Predict the structure.
Amino acid sequence: MEKRGKWIMENLTVEEKQQSVEAFKSIIRKSEKALSHMKTSAPQTRLLEKRIKAAQIGVDTLLARWEGQNLNVSKTDLINAKKELEGLLLTLPSFLEKSKAGSGQRTYITRRINAFKVAVFYMDDLIEKSEQE
């Protein structure tokens, strides 16, 4: 990412950081609730499990970066989580377009997009650093 993008990612406000963490936690809660209502053999179950894992790695990545928490995740899991979040980032703008300006739904989707972008940025950084070692 260009220098300006890096500067923006490194200089988020406390509120923006909290919103990003909360966006991930909300995704995890809602996905776990949906998963609890699915049959274990349902094809969507595996997809939802992958998304929950990606979201958990996403929030852990943010907390590790911002709060100095330990990030105990393999490079493979980090790469897979990044790919999953990038895939979701491709779908979210269509939901944003369908939402009404000023609505809570629009705010929620915007925060989710921002959280994913920040997490993917940090994951890229971690993957790059691991490849240099």
